[in-house]
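#struct-help
A.M.: can someone run this one for me? Single chain, 48 residues.
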Amino acid sequence: MTLEHDERPWGYTVLDEGADYKVKRITVHAGKRLSYQRHAPDFGALHG
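D.P.: on it. Structure tokens below:
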């Protein structure tokens, strides 16, 4: 059995959530940074 471990330079707290949304506060650990990677937007999600 292989255990998967993912260490991230950030954490989050869920502030509110409902059936179709979730609001999170993201906290970046001291001395760390978020990735500069970008993802192309999903055209269908943006324009119905």
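A.M.: thanks! The mean pLDDT is 79.
D.P.: also worth noting: The helical segments are 43-46.
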